[in-house]
C-alpha cells in the first residue's frame, strides 16, 4: 500500500502550445474564404431542420444522460448501461418537451451512437405500422409506441445472412389450438446479430419459415413476445442473450435467440400482406411484392444522405486539424506568421490536399444524389399507387449501386481522414476511431456491397440488350438506356479534350463517365451472350461496372443540382460548388483511370491533363477548405473530437481529455504493488545509483 | 430487485450446425491439396524456430497469465492490468526455464499484443546497449536487464512526430553542478505516445535539444530517472501520465511527460556517439551518422517479415471460414455433399476468391523479400565495418519504399479479409477486429508511409540521372540502376505478350514491372529538371513511383527466391509457390493497371489477357487454398479466432465464446430496474394482452 496520498489526479501545467494559436489560424483561414458558408448551410438544410438542431442541441447538451465526456473511456458493459440511461431519458424528454418523431431522431443523430432501443424505433415500429391488421395494431403497435413493450427485428441467423431464403427457423401452424410453434432445429438456426435483442426487447419480429399442413411457404414475419412483462425473464422455451463484443456498435446489445417448440397465438402472424386462415391453415398470397422495393429505395436514399454526414464529419475533423497542425519549414516557400518564419501547415503540402480535399467533394456529391433519390422515391411512390411502375426498376438498380459505392467511399474516406491526422488520428480523442468502428457495418448490412453490385449490373445488361436490339424506342429512353443509346451511336468515339482546361467542362467530364459505363456494359453483355462466360466468372467486372454507373449518377446529379440551385445561392457559393463538382470528377477519373483508358475513350495524354487539372483544382479549393467544412454546420457536441473543434484549440483539448483518463486518477497504478515492485525491489539489496539523491527531493 | 435467482449463465442447447460439419469440410479441403504444407512450413521456418514455437507454446498455453479467453471482453484499465500480469509472469518464466531472448520474443509473438514492458525490451535496452559507455552500461543497462529499472523511449512530442529536428524539449548543461536541466517550454513540447511511460517506466531515454553555452546542438538522447525506485511516485518537477484510449494498443500505457527545470547528472547524457566535456561543456561530434541507417534497414526488414505474419494470420482466418461457410445453392453448378445438394461454399464464388487468394500470395511475397532484406542487411553491416558503404544507399531507399508499401498492403489485407467474412467478421470473435486495431499504427510509425516514399523516389531520381548522363558505367550497375539502364536502351519498347498464357512467363511479368517503374522515374525527373515542377507539387506521382519500385522488388525476390529453393523443396511445393508468384504479379498489374497502360508498355488488349489469366490462376489455386494457409503453421492459440480454427468448428466456437459475454452472466440486465421496468410497467394499469397466458409457463 502507498504510504502517501495516491489519489492525486494528474494535471498539465498551464502552458500555451508553440506556434500560431489554433483559434487565430482558423480565423485567418475563414477570412480567406471566397464565399459565405452560411449561404451553403441554409441551402443544404432547410430552416426548420436548422432550428430543430439548435433547439434539441440546447436541451441535450445540458442533460447528464447525453454527456459524451466518458464515451471514449467506457468498457463494453458500461457503454451499454450508459446507452440505457440515454434511451430512458429520451423517452422522458420526448414527453416533457412534446418532441415529434423528427425531434427524437435529431436527438439520436446528435448523440451519434446506436443504443438498445434503436431497433425498436427503426425496425420494430415501422414493421408493425406496415404489416399488421387493425387488431394487431391495437395489440402490438399501440403499447410499442408508448414503450410498454420494446421490440426488435429478428431475421439474420448464425448460419445465414445474405440468403434470406436459406433461413432455418420454422413456424408450424397447429390447427387444434390455432397456434404457431416457433422452433430452432439446429445451432446455425439461432437468430444472431439482432439489435436490442440481447438484454432489452420484450418482443421480436421473428422471420420464420411458415409451415402449413406440411408445406413450407418460406420466411414470414411473426410478432413474438420473448420476455416476461412482469420481471423481464426470458419466457420458457427461449434461449436469448448478447452475441458479445463487436468491432463497433458496442452500445447496442446485439443478441441471439433460439426457440424450443415455442407456442404463439395465431394473432402473432403479421397479416398485413400474406394471411393464414384460422383452423384450415389455408394460405392467402400477398399482393404485388414489387411494392416493398420502394421501401428499399427509401432506406438506401437515407444511407446515401448518411454518407454525406459521415464524410462531412471526417473531413471537418481532418481539415481543421490539418490547418492547425504544422510540420517542417518549407525552405522553398517559407510560411510567415507575425513576421516570423514558422513551420508549414500540413494542409499546404500537396499530398495532404490530395488526400483530403476530394473527400469534401464526395460529401457534397452524396448530398445532391441523396436529395435526388428522395425526390425520385416520392415520385415513384405516387406513380406506384396509381399502378405505374415505370420508374421502379431503374430506381432500384441505381440505388443498389449507389448504396454499395457510397458506403464503401465513406468507410475509405473516414479512414483516409484518420490517417491524414498522423499519430493523433490514432487517439480516440480524434473522434475518428470510434466513428470508423461504428460506421463500418454499413458496407455489409442492407445488402453486402459486393452482392448489391450484381443487381445493378443485371439491370444495366438488360437495358443494353434492349437498346442494342432497338427494342427501346428513343422516346421511352430513361437516364440509363439514354446513355447506352448514345454510346451505341458511336461506340468508338473519343474524348474531344485537347488541353487540360477542357476537363473543366462538365459535358466533357460527363461524356467520359457515360462512355466508360456504357462500354463496360457492352463488354459484360458480350462476354455473357457471345463468349458463353458464366455470371459467376464475371463478378469482378460486374462490381466495377456497378461502380462506374454509380459514379456517373453522382457526377450527373452534382452537375444538375448546381444548375438547379442557380437562384437559391449566391454566385460565390455556386462557384465554390462548381469547383467541388469538377474536383469530384477529375479525382474520380484519376482513381479509376484504367477503366477510362481501357475503354479507349481517353488517351494517356488526356490522362496527364486530368492529373494536371486535378492539382490546379486542389490549389483553387485550398483557401476555401475550412469554410467548405464549416458549411456542413456540424456542432462540436456532434463531432466530439479534440482535433476537429471549431475553435482549433487542438492541443489544449488533447491534454484536457487525457486528464480524464481513469489511469491518471492515481499517481501510482494499482498494479505496482503486485507486478512492478517485486521486480524493482528485487535489486534493492545490491547497491546501485538510484538518481533521487541527484534530483530535486520529492 | 429480481425475485428469482438472476445469476443463471446463458447456455446454448447442444445442437449441431446445419450442413457439412466444419471439421469434415476442412479435412476434405486438405485432402485436395497438390502439395504437402509441412514441406513449405519447414522451408519458411528453420527447425530451431519451429521447436521453439512448440516448446514455448506448451508452457504459456497452461499459464493463467497468458490466457486469452478474456481478451475480447476487457475494458481499457483491465486490459492494461492483465498485460502487467503477463509481463511479470514472463520475467518469472524466463528465470524458471532459462529462456533466451529469442524464447521471450516467441512468447510475446504468440501472446500477440503489446504490453507495458514492450518498449523496455524493444527500445530501452537496445539504446542502452548501443549508445552508452562502460560506466553507463553498469549504471543503466545492468539493472535494466534484471528489470530492476524499467525504461521507455521518449522522442515524439505532442506537437511533433515526423519532424525530429522540430522537437522542443531542452537539455541545458549547467557547468557549476555538472548537471543538465531538462525542460518543457510549451504545451506542445510534452512528450506524447511514449509506450510504457504512462504508469510503468522508472526511466526514460529522453530526446532533448542539447544546449551548450547557449548553443543549440539539436536533439540528443539522455537516460532520465522519472519515478522513485522506492514507491514509484513521479519525481518532483515531472508531470507524467497516460495519454488515454487509442484505436488499438490499449494494453500499453502510452504516456506523456513534461519536465519543469528538472536536473539530471552529467552521466545521464548517452555518450556512445557524441560527447560533452564535463566543466567546459565542449561538444565532441559523433562518428559517421550513416551507421544508424543500417539499424533502420534492420527494423524495416523485420516489419516486412511482420507483414508476412499479419497477412498470413488474416488469410488463415478468412480462408478457413470461407471454406466452411455456405451461402446460396449455385443453380448452374450445384454442390453435392453425401449425395445431397447443399449450399455452395463462399470460397467457390469468383469474387470471394478474387478478394482472398491474392492476399495469400502477398504474404508469401513478403516472406521472400523480408528474408532477402535481412540477408542484405547482414552483408551491408559487414561491408560498412570495413568502410564499404556501396550497398547502403540502395538498401535504405528500397527499405523505405518496402516498409511503406507492405504495411499499407497488410492493413488493407487484414480489412479485406475481415469484410470477406461477412457479418461475423465484425464480431470480435473473428479475431480480425482487434488485430486490425493493433496493427494499424504500422502505417504511421517508423516513418509515415507517405513521407517514406519521398526517400525512395529521391534515390530513384538520382540513379536515373546518373544512368541517363552515362555517369554509371555498366559494371557498377546495381539492381536499381540496372533496370533504369535497360529502360533507356529502348524507352519505347512494348510488352511482347501475344496471348494470355504469355503472362505466366516470369520474364515477361518482370519486364513489365521494370519498365513501369523506370518510365515513371523518367517522367518524375523530366518534370523536376525540365518542366521546373517543385518537389512538393510532384508528391502524388512520387508516392506512386515508390510503390512501383517496391512492387518490382517484391516480385523480383519472389521469383528468384523460388529459383534458389529448387533443391530445398519438393517439386509440388515449388509448383504451388510458382503459381502464387504468378498470381501476385498478375493481380498487382490489374490493381495498378493505369500505370502500365500510361507507360505505353501494355496495350488494353494485353490488359484483358492479364484479367483472363488472373481468373485462371484463382481457379488453379483454389484447391490448395486451405493448405497454403495451413503452411504458415499459425497455432489456434495465436489466431484466437472463432472463424479461423484449424478444426473448422466455427459455429460451435462462436456460441461458446458468446456464452462468456459478461452481459450473459445474468438472466436480466442490471439496467432493467432503473431504465426498462419504469417504461413497461407504466402501462400495467391499462389492460392489454401480455402473451404469457398463451405461452408455456415460466
From TrEMBL, chains A, B:
<keyword id="KW-0560">Oxidoreductase</keyword>
<dbReference type="InterPro" id="IPR006091">
    <property type="entry name" value="Acyl-CoA_Oxase/DH_mid-dom"/>
</dbReference>
<dbReference type="InterPro" id="IPR009100">
    <property type="entry name" value="AcylCoA_DH/oxidase_NM_dom_sf"/>
</dbReference>
<comment type="similarity">
    <text>Belongs to the acyl-CoA oxidase family.</text>
</comment>
<feature type="active site" description="Proton acceptor">
    <location>
        <position position="446"/>
    </location>
</feature>
<keyword id="KW-0576">Peroxisome</keyword>
<dbReference type="Pfam" id="PF14749">
    <property type="entry name" value="Acyl-CoA_ox_N"/>
</dbReference>
<dbReference type="GO" id="GO:0005504">
    <property type="term" value="F:fatty acid binding"/>
</dbReference>
<dbReference type="Pfam" id="PF01756">
    <property type="entry name" value="ACOX"/>
</dbReference>
<dbReference type="GO" id="GO:0071949">
    <property type="term" value="F:FAD binding"/>
</dbReference>
<dbReference type="InterPro" id="IPR036250">
    <property type="entry name" value="AcylCo_DH-like_C"/>
</dbReference>
<feature type="domain" description="Acyl-CoA oxidase C-terminal">
    <location>
        <begin position="505"/>
        <end position="680"/>
    </location>
</feature>
<dbReference type="InterPro" id="IPR002655">
    <property type="entry name" value="Acyl-CoA_oxidase_C"/>
</dbReference>
<keyword id="KW-0274">FAD</keyword>
<keyword id="KW-0285">Flavoprotein</keyword>
<dbReference type="InterPro" id="IPR029320">
    <property type="entry name" value="Acyl-CoA_ox_N"/>
</dbReference>
<feature type="binding site">
    <location>
        <position position="156"/>
    </location>
    <ligand>
        <name>FAD</name>
    </ligand>
</feature>
<dbReference type="GO" id="GO:0033540">
    <property type="term" value="P:fatty acid beta-oxidation using acyl-CoA oxidase"/>
</dbReference>
<comment type="pathway">
    <text>Lipid metabolism; peroxisomal fatty acid beta-oxidation.</text>
</comment>
<feature type="domain" description="Acyl-coenzyme A oxidase N-terminal">
    <location>
        <begin position="36"/>
        <end position="150"/>
    </location>
</feature>
<dbReference type="InterPro" id="IPR046373">
    <property type="entry name" value="Acyl-CoA_Oxase/DH_mid-dom_sf"/>
</dbReference>
<feature type="domain" description="Acyl-CoA oxidase C-alpha1">
    <location>
        <begin position="293"/>
        <end position="460"/>
    </location>
</feature>
<dbReference type="GO" id="GO:0055088">
    <property type="term" value="P:lipid homeostasis"/>
</dbReference>
<dbReference type="InterPro" id="IPR055060">
    <property type="entry name" value="ACOX_C_alpha1"/>
</dbReference>
<protein>
    <recommendedName>
        <fullName>Acyl-coenzyme A oxidase</fullName>
    </recommendedName>
</protein>
<dbReference type="InterPro" id="IPR037069">
    <property type="entry name" value="AcylCoA_DH/ox_N_sf"/>
</dbReference>
<dbReference type="Pfam" id="PF02770">
    <property type="entry name" value="Acyl-CoA_dh_M"/>
</dbReference>
<keyword id="KW-0443">Lipid metabolism</keyword>
<feature type="binding site">
    <location>
        <position position="195"/>
    </location>
    <ligand>
        <name>FAD</name>
    </ligand>
</feature>
<keyword id="KW-0276">Fatty acid metabolism</keyword>
<dbReference type="GO" id="GO:0005777">
    <property type="term" value="C:peroxisome"/>
</dbReference>
<feature type="domain" description="Acyl-CoA oxidase/dehydrogenase middle">
    <location>
        <begin position="152"/>
        <end position="260"/>
    </location>
</feature>
<dbReference type="Pfam" id="PF22924">
    <property type="entry name" value="ACOX_C_alpha1"/>
</dbReference>
<dbReference type="InterPro" id="IPR012258">
    <property type="entry name" value="Acyl-CoA_oxidase"/>
</dbReference>
<dbReference type="GO" id="GO:0003997">
    <property type="term" value="F:acyl-CoA oxidase activity"/>
</dbReference>
